[in-house]
Amino acid sequence: MNLELLLAEAEESSSGIDLLLPATSELVAGIAAFAIVFFLYLEMGTTCIE
Fold first, then answer.
1. Following DSSP, what letter does each residue of 11-24 receive, concatenated?
2. Residue 41 lies in a domain
3. In angstroms, rounded to a whole number, what is the distance separating the alpha carbons of residues 40 and 35?
4. E strands within 1-50?
5. In terms of residue numbers, what domain contains 46?
6. Which of 30, 36, 37, 39 has its CA 20 to 30 A from that of 13?
7. Are 41 and 34 within 8 A, CB to CB?
């Protein structure tokens, strides 16, 4: 019975877009980290290719 109650609560509390996107703070941190790594590879990669 506890499993059924847990599944019912999970279905009520989450919708489609909430399941797809992370929390806002995690999204901002991920974008910032991606930008730093992207620009580092861009700078290092272009100097190695030339």
1. HHH--HHHHHS--H
2. yes
3. 8
4. none
5. 20-50
6. 30
7. no
Whether residue 24 is contained in a domain is answered as yes
Domain membership flag for residue 48? yes
Here the tokens at position 39 are 């620009």
> Kind and range of the H or E element at 31?
helix 24-49
Which amino acid is located at 8 in the chain? A
Rounded to 5 degrees, what are φ and ψ at 22?
A: -75, 180
- CB of 19 closer than 8 Å to CB of 27: no
Domains held by the chain: number: 1
Q: What is the pLDDT of residues 5-43, one digit of tens each?
A: 666 665 556 667 777 888 899 999 999 999 999 999 988
Is 5 a domain residue? no
For residue 50, pLDDT beyond 90: no
